[in-house]
Amino acid sequence: MQAMLPDLTVSPYTHTFQRRHIGILSPDGNVHLTGIKQEPAAEDVFACSVCNTVFITEEILNEHQRRAHAHPGGRHQCRFCPYYARNVKRHERTHTGEKPYVCKVCSKRFTQKWDLQRHVARVHEDPKNHQCNLCGCRFKLKHQLWDHVISHAK
């Protein structure tokens, strides 16, 4: 098992652009030097948008942000307004206009995965289960059937 020397690193989660000694941690707790660790290139790291601390994986960055910058109750503040939420990224899309979820059938874009899933189910997959008793026309949504039935009365 490799370990960073305790006196040479800020925390097990931080990563700065410096050379660090690495070693093998033996069962008795001693560290045996094995060399110098080269830090990753800038494009291979993930920086915290709040404090600029750099991490080697996005997972460690997310854990850092959750622990270090979370509002009490595990909530984070929006970068654009005073709003707090557990998943603030979803809210921030209302400011940025980002729509990362794309329908493979019609290319319509959505801000949330759930909205895409609902769209696909309603528009592209759901069978037409609502049938008009007067003419036999079928509809995907109940309110569409109601609108249709009303048209018979006109």
From TrEMBL:
According to the UniProt entry, its GO molecular function terms are: DNA-binding transcription factor activity, RNA polymerase II-specific; RNA polymerase II cis-regulatory region sequence-specific DNA binding; zinc ion binding
Compartmental location: Nucleus
Start and end of every C2H2-type domain?
A: 46-76, 101-129, 130-154
One short Pfam family name for this protein? zf-C2H2
Q: What InterPro entries would the database entry show?
A: Snail/Krueppel_Znf (IPR050527), Znf_C2H2_sf (IPR036236), Znf_C2H2_type (IPR013087)
Give the record's keywords alphabetically: DNA-binding, Metal-binding, Nucleus, Repeat, Transcription, Transcription regulation, Zinc, Zinc-finger
Name the family the entry cites. Belongs to the krueppel C2H2-type zinc-finger protein family. Belongs to the snail C2H2-type zinc-finger protein family.
Q: What is this protein called?
A: C2H2-type domain-containing protein
